[in-house]
Every structure is written in C-alpha cells, then in structure tokens.
Amino acid sequence: MVGEPLARSAHRRTLSSQFTTSTYPGGPRNNIRHNNSSFSPLPPLTHRRRYLAISSLLILAIIFILKTSAGAPFHRITSVYSKPNLEDQVSSCGKLTTPTRTTIYGTDTVYIPGPTQTVTVQDNALIQPHPSKAVVFILIMWSKTSAIEGALLVKSILMYNTSPSEFHIICDDEAENYLRSRFALVHRPRQHILIRFYKPSWQSMLDRIEREGTIQTDHSAGLPGLMKLFIHEIVPVEKGIYIDTDAFFISDPTLLWNIFETLKPSTAVVMSSHPDQNSPEWNNASRICSCVMLLDLEKLRNLRLMDSSIYQADSTHRFPSALGPEAFRAMYGLPGGDGRGRYDNVRLGDQGYWWAIVSHRPDIFEPLSYDFEVTSCLLNTYNIGLGNDDTDESEELSRQSFLIDTPQEGIVVLPKLLHFNCLHGTDVYMNWEGWSHPDNILAQRWGAALKYHEGYKWIWLNNGGGSSMQMEATSVVFADEHFASEISL
Ligand SMILES: *[C@@H]1O[C@H](CO)[C@@H](O)[C@H](O)[C@H]1NC(C)=O
C-alpha cells in the first residue's frame, strides 16, 4: 500500500526538481542568442521581415504547445537512465518477477510495478547509478532446527531494516524448505528482498576441508560451522554481515551495515573483542566471538584466507601464499604436532582459527561494538535487559558488567542485536527451559523480547506495495575450484 505512492512521490520529486533548473528554453540560453544577434550586422529589410514572421510563428507554436500539454512543465528533458535489475541477470531459477528497477541519482531506487514505465530525469542529475543500497547478510543454516532459529533472525531483520535486504544462506534442503515456508507468507514487503540459497553437498564441504589439509573441528557446529572460514569462497559478494542463527535484532540492521563505512582501509574482519577474557583451555579464543562478523569478502579473497592443495600446486607464484597456514602455525604450532597431521589443539571450532588469524594479523581486525552482540554466553548480556524506561545512560552504565579492560569500557551498551548462545539442553534456543522459569534472570531480562519477536507474524511484514521479493537457489563451487578451472585454461 505504501510502495506505489512512494514510487509516485519519487516521480514528483524528480519532476519538481526540474522547475529549479536554469536551462529550460526561454531562459538564459535564448537570451544569449538574442544578444549574439544584436552584434551581427542588420540583415536587409526583406530578410528582417521574413525573420520576424518566422519568429512570430515559432512563438505562437510554443504557446500552443505549452497550452495543450495540460500544465506539464516544458523542459529540456534529455537522456533517461534505465537499467534492468542486476539480480535478474544472475537469476538461477529463471523466474524474473522483479519489475524494472530504475536508478535515479539523488532519490531512492524505485521499483515500478506493472509494465515498464519511462522515468525521465534531468541530464545533469545523471552522474552514476547508485550502488546497491541493500544490507547483505550471510547466514549458515544446516538442518531444520537451525532454520527455525535463523528464521527468527531473518524476520527481525525484515521487521527493522530501513534498507533493502539481501540474504545469502548456506544451507541444506531441510533448512531451505523451512525458510521457504516462511518467506511464502510475505508478498508485499516494505523493502526489496533478495534471497539466495547456496546448497553445498556434505561431500563438497568435506572435500574443501580435505584440500585445506590442516584444520578439523572440535565443535558441535561441526563441518557446516567450519564453513564460516570459507564464506569468501562460497558467496560472490564484496562484503557482508555474518550472524549465528541464535540471535535477533531489536533495532535497524542498517546501523550495523553502516559500520563498514567507518573502517580502516586494511580492515577485513570485525567482531566483538574481549581482551579481558582468559580461557587457557581454549587458548584464549573466547576473547573474540565469530558469532557476529562484518566480513570484507573481497579482501579475504585477496588475502587467500584459507589454503588449498590447488593453490599449493600453482607453480606460477603469481599469487601470495594463503594467510591461514602461517597464522595457525604462529599460534598452534605445526598441524598434528609434526606437520603431518591436523590440528587437534584448536578449540571452539572455526573461532579458534579466526582467533589465530586476527591475532597474527591485527592490522586486518577491528572490534565490534557490544551493542551488536549482547550475548548471554558468560557475559550475562552485560547485566542489561528490559526495564524502567526512564533509566538514564549514566545509571545504565553504572550497572553494566564485563566492560572493564575492553574496547567499550566507559561506553554504555545500547542493545541492538541480542545473541542467546550458551543456552544448553536444547537445539532451538527459543525452547530453552529457562525461559519458562520466572526466577531465571535471563528470562526476566529478555523473555518478553523473545516472546514478542517469536510471536510476531510473518504476514505482518506485508506492509509495502511496490517492493518485490526474489528467491534463488544455487549449487556451490569453492573459489579454489574456480581457480583450478582458470589455471587449466
Ligand atoms: C592467554 O592469556 C594469558 C593472559 O594474557 C596468557 O598468560 C596466556 O599465555 C594466554 N594463553 C594462550 C594459549 O595464548
């Protein structure tokens, strides 16, 4: 209901902005011509009469056109920039339901429903098409239970995102089917939504780990969890936000996305950092959390984050050797102890490897504000939760815990993304038995928030009109396999 008037108002904005232009006929351009003619020698009398007659006819014609154009502004309307939706071209499902997207400089992207319409814009406004303004999420969901959690995360994104959303979801059939059952309820979203399912086979993931040669997992998330180290090899986007499934937003995800703009040029990985945490049993890997990550995937590809037997076999040496092996060696020694086995001393699955990477290369790392990872795991959601709505910031800060000796010491945590990890005894954190215990402190803090977001109906997301939703599925080819096919050319 909102999208159509929005699209129209964008039209109107564009047209009205043309009123302010100084280059319409009758303006300075014609004056210049008059001035010029006054400098030229006077033509003979007959020529002057013919000139006056033609001029009068022209003026009459112009007045006639102005009157019959029903009040429309008569402006020098020149080129039109209209380009088909980029995603349409890479659609793998062949269902091109997205209406033509016309990019207009200085306004939002407009999705025009129905047959293609021509949008006219001022020529001086056509500088460059806007880059895609979508917030890009990369999620991994393996099994239905993981998708049940992840669907709540996705729903919260759609509830709050003020930008279009892109979801790149690495998943199996069960997870895809569950998510599709929820997406099917949304047909009039407020913002454009793109969903792409990436479907690696179990064997293809095993093979990639095999080609890496040194890593293995000790973690319950197992093999799919290790794929967090290979996102840059699976998802062909420039950058994205990775979030574990056991989390949901309580504010606009665009705020998290905007952090990319604030990063140092060398930064490729952003995650929350807790230098105050000591965990000798985990080699201190709990000082980071690979649960919420801003990933510059293009940089990680250029760094060749993870090694492969295919890269090792490339004798041209045109590319730097992979970053992973040297980082893992620096922290954990030789794989298997003698360099011939696999690491058996790395804890917390992928996080142990990320910890080695960002410890070895602090130049590519920046800490994430805890606002975006309010975690129930060990850190007790920093002792914050729903409560008195008139609490001021200094009072809130005085109560918060686990901020001393961290990058956020003295800075109040204003929760935007809640992360319910370490709730044991259940596959789905929403079913954790603690939620039903009135005395449970986590339930007191956040139980109502969970209940609201869980119970929020997908059909309530149907509050737009002109925006569309596009779903695709694709198989997975890892970057090292692409590389193999390139070098054999
Ligand atoms: C963990 O951190 C502590 C305190 O900084 C340090 O003494 C210890 O060597 C670290 N352990 C590992 C395995 O890095």
From TrEMBL:
UniProt main location, coarse: membrane
Keyword hit for Transmembrane: yes
Entry GO terms, CC: membrane
Example of a GO MF term: xylosyltransferase activity
Compositionally skewed regions (Polar residues) per UniProt: 15-24
Key words, A-Z: Glycoprotein, Membrane, Signal-anchor, Transmembrane, Transmembrane helix
Membrane-related topology note: Single-pass type II membrane protein
Places the protein is found: Membrane
Region of interest called Disordered, as start-end residue ranges on this chain: 1-41
Recorded superkingdom: Eukaryota
TM region(s), chain numbering: 51-70
Biological process per Gene Ontology, one example term: protein O-linked glycosylation via mannose
InterPro entries assigned to the protein according to its UniProt record, in alphabetical order: Nucleotide-diphossugar_trans, Xyl/GlcA_transferase
Protein name as annotated: Glycosyltransferase family 8 protein
Species classification: Eukaryota, Fungi, Dikarya, Basidiomycota, Agaricomycotina
